[in-house]
Design goal:
globular
Length: 146
């Protein structure tokens, strides 16, 4: 819970510094994602949010998610169509995600040399990268082989 509070405090400061509005709904969506052990799907978020706010609808959740992604506070796990809180939103470079297929644990890496190599090669091929997602699926050390 302390990690979640620290993340929310950091998000609040970051949004304030950027002049971005960190509304109560955006804050609550980030809090729900941060409390989830392996990320949440949008409709799971909607269900949890609707239990607290009767007026919550899909556009509410998707707008909040878009804002949080734009601010670097949340990442979309493409392969799972889920969202996970970014543990270090101050890191402005690309990232890689390690995703455990068994327990759903997600770890974020920042291997800047990997990102640089990919960007350089893309540039050499005349390709302009607009978005990059690197997800490594496997099994974490806490999950036994079975």
């Amino acid at each position: 819970m302390t990690e979640s509070r620290d993340l929310l405090r950091q998000a609040e400061h970051q949004c304030q510094a950027r002049g971005a509005r960190f509304t109560p709904i955006r804050r609550r969506v980030l809090e729900l994602i941060a409390e989830a052990p392996g990320g949440l799907k949008a409709y799971d978020l909607l269900d949890r949010l609707a239990a607290e706010h009767a007026a919550a609808r899909p556009p509410t959740v998707y707008r909040a998610l878009e804002f949080l992604i734009d601010q670097g506070l949340v990442h979309r796990i493409e392969s799972l169509n889920a969202y996970v809180a970014c543990p270090c939103p101050e890191h402005s470079h690309g990232f890689q995600l390690l995703i455990c297929r068994r327990c759903g644990r997600v770890e974020e890496l920042h291997l800047d040399d990997v990102n640089a190599q990919l960007a350089d090669r893309a540039r050499e091929l005349g390709f302009r990268v607009e978005r990059q997602t690197i997800e490594l699926l496997g099994r974490c050390e806490a999950c036994p082989d079975a």
